[in-house]
Amino acid sequence: MANDIFQFFDTPFVIFILLIFFVVIICCYWLKKQKNEDADKIPGPCSIPIFGTRWIFYFGCYKINKFHEFYDDAYKRYGPIMREYFFNIPMYSIFERADIEKVMKAPSKYPVRPPTAAIVAYRYSRPDRYSSAGVVNEQGEKWHNLRLSLTSELTSPKTIANFHAEVKNLARDWCREIKSAKCHSGAVDNIANLLLPLCIETSCALILGRRLGFMCPEKLPMKFQKLGEAIKNYFICLRDTQHASPLWKYFGSASYRKMMKCEDQIYDTVLNIINESNGENNIGTVYSSIINSNIDEKEKIAAIIDFIMAGIQTLKNSLIFLLYLVAKNSSVQRKIIENPGYAKACMKESFRLLPTATPLARILEQDMKLAGYQIKSGSVVLCHNGIACRNEENFDFPLSFIPERWLGENVHKTSTIGTFIVIPFGSGKRICPGKRFIELVLPIFLKKIVTNFKIVTDDVLDLQHEFLLSAKEPLSMFFHDR
Ligand code: HEM
């Protein structure tokens, strides 16, 4: 047998094939080196075959839920640009204002934000439910058509103005919820448990144009009750598939299977909610504009799901961060009550310090010089706007919560510096269509809460990467009646 093998390798044909194979490998390696000569000099963690630089997360240097700390440290260690390999794909992280501005301002007909692979894979595997990956994850002309057909009502100032009274009702009802949930000392043990129903109710009210009762769990139909948990788990599964080896695409994985289950649960619940509206189609609501748009029926359901989903966790995290900062800086609470515009300044400052959706990613459409290195078009670039916002080169006392930056004579300087870094909703054509709505909601909620309660917390915020930047639960707060 061994003899046969030696005889086989002895044949000139096999030797010739092996020779060609090695020549091809050497040429590929040489070409790759030539092509990326500049990019190869970019500092970054050591890359190993197959895993690239992901070993950092596998061998215990950083936990996956402390992803943000890895990038904080990377900036200190490597400077304005860092190269990493997501398995074999190079990715570049940029941390400084000028470079972030360059990427965000790059002219593009259809800007490309790298899609969330697990959502795309799942939606394309379910043609019975989806006819695209949806506006959040589609690209090119398809994205453009979805964006045009679906977001005009959502971004219209008229829709937002019509929603003003409902936001006040939501804030009032939530204060009632706090009153009944807090104990004698005023403590609420896990603020997230109270905020999640508010955020689901707010998102559904905006998109569907009606209240569903998520803030009265005892009256909420059983079929809706699992929505909050499904959404939370969904985001965690997205994080886990995003960081895992791409082999899940071929063989599946526990987190991908769980993500599919969550997406199905969310889909079924939202479909139920839509069906329960019994054909109610209030003109002027986001819901009616989607239902009446000239797109495939499946796209309409997907859009309603995407819009409801996009708003819940982002709003919850942003509201927790805002309440936390205000609770820790109790002197601002009186100013919120007394000065019009102060609540909005608190919101902006909170977005500067703790944006939930960061880093912002783009795929370059042309070669670009970043931090002195030439980066090829087609490269994935992560813009760490949050880190740039906490850099003293951009803001004085960058780690302090100072809403006054956004008021009076300071506002011009802060806004100019912040144009391309204080971008919690992204920037350019792919900017979040929910921005206007959230900017209406947050100051109203904040003002109502601090008018009713003096809020205090002894806890220290522990940030967690759960696809979005989130607060580790439980985070307790005291709500003392005013
Ligand atoms: C505090 C709340 C929110 C934050 C911080 C937030 C943040 C973001 C960010 C950073 C992006 C990516 C933008 C970019 O790549 O330039 C985005 C995209 C998006 N957001 Fe939001 N968002 C929030 C709420 C909402 C709400 C309420 C909705 C819908 C009602 C929504 C719908 C979307 C959609 C559809 C996209 C994809 C846009 C596209 O690719 O064209 N978001 N959001």
Automatic annotation (TrEMBL):
GO molecular function: heme binding; iron ion binding; monooxygenase activity; oxidoreductase activity, acting on paired donors, with incorporation or reduction of molecular oxygen
Binding site for heme: C432
Superkingdom, natural source: Eukaryota
Cofactor requirements of the protein: heme
UniProt cross-references to PROSITE patterns, sorted A to Z: CYTOCHROME_P450
Keywords for this protein: Heme, Iron, Membrane, Metal-binding, Monooxygenase, Oxidoreductase, Transmembrane, Transmembrane helix
Database matches in PANTHER family: CYTOCHROME P450
Recorded family membership: Belongs to the cytochrome P450 family.
The protein's name: Cytochrome P450
Organism for this UniProt entry: Henosepilachna vigintioctopunctata
